[in-house]
Amino acid sequence: MADMTGPYIPALRFRLLTPLYDPLLKWGLQEERFKQQLIAQAEIGPHMQVLDLGCGTGTLTVLLARAHSQAGLHGLDGDSAVLAIAAAKARHSGVHITWTQGLSHALPYPNNTFQRVTASLMVHHLNRDQKRRTFREVWRVLSPGGELHIADFGPPHSLVTGWMSRIIRRLEETADNLDGLLPFLLAESGFAEIVETGYLTSIVGPLSLYRAVKAPNVGR
Fold first, then answer.
1. DSSP string, 130-146
2. 120-142 confidence digits (pLDDT tens)
């Protein structure tokens, strides 16, 4: 298990609010829409090993497992309470997922383990140093040619979304997302072919989808 002594921000920042996490995503952040887009763009093939990073209550992880029953699904989160909720969802859905408690910037997996990594609304919980460390760790555990797919807060594309994002901009960890720095941090960590693949507007703020690739010709 990863070292759990480092700084960690749970879902909605406070553990007391964990029961509100799923309703907020469903009604406030167009959860079904952006998660289905993320699943589609990941183009997961049979027998791929897939890590849902910062999986939270496991909604995306379970959707991935249901859509790709022949893939190996893994969910990682630092919060044991949300992992318990995630495991219950998987049992109810009849899908097999391997759940691990750990931190994104100290992943408990060998090099080149996964062909796909997804991250849904978790990167904005990390400060800049943690983002860098997380992206380097994701690069390490991806096999050459593997892909990272992110859905998270992104830069405003209009005056309206800029105004809507003022509240979340007050959070230090979210500023990098809103300032459009994620592609630069991904490039620093060794990723290539970094593309903003989609954009949505929510009542909380703008959401961007990204794809980044670990080049297929890097050393194993």
1. HHHHHHHHHHHHEEEEE
2. 999 999 999 999 999 999 999 99
